[in-house]
Design a protein that fits this description.
Blueprint: H1 3-33, E1 43-44, E2 56-59, E3 62-65, E4 67-72, E5 85-94, E6 97-103, E7 109-112, E8 115-118, H2 121-129
Antiparallel strand pairs: 1-2, 2-3, 4-5, 5-6, 7-8
């Protein structure tokens, strides 16, 4: 075998190796940086029943987002407005199925933008000290 032919074969082998390594690196990058949802797999962005973080559940191509609802305390046509009290509809996965629960936020918190949020610092402190 001539030296030139040997060099050409080595160059081809190195080229194949470099291309293969590039493809493997790209696939590894793609897997790490994409959210891959398989059909029939339930995923929850906030990790389950987390009432203080707005999350989304994905299942079979459907998206379910935590939300506030079942609100009471609507303003009367005349007079002062009582505080509005909404409950949180928390979506979560259970045995690879989508489920939800209506949750009432504790004292010092109110449902706002799909999560339990602090109403005010004074309300929160009252709630904390009422536990002692």
């Amino acid at each position: 075998m001539s030296k030139k032919r040997f060099s050409s074969i080595i160059a081809v082998i190195i080229g194949i190796f470099v291309i293969g390594a590039g493809i493997i690196a790209y696939q590894s990058y793609k897997i790490r940086n994409e959210i891959i949802i398989s059909p029939g797999v339930c995923t929850d962005s906030d990790g389950g029943k987390n009432y203080y973080i707005k999350g989304t559940v994905s299942y079979n191509g459907q998206i379910y987002t935590d939300e506030c609802g079942m609100c009471t305390g609507a303003c009367p046509s005349v007079g002062s407005c009582p505080p509005v009290n909404c409950r949180l509809k928390e979506y979560y996965c259970d045995n690879n199925q989508v489920k939800n629960i209506w949750y009432t936020c504790p004292g010092g918190f109110s449902c706002k933008n799909g999560r339990c949020s602090i109403v005010s610092i004074s309300s929160l402190l009252k709630f904390i000290f009422s536990r002692f």
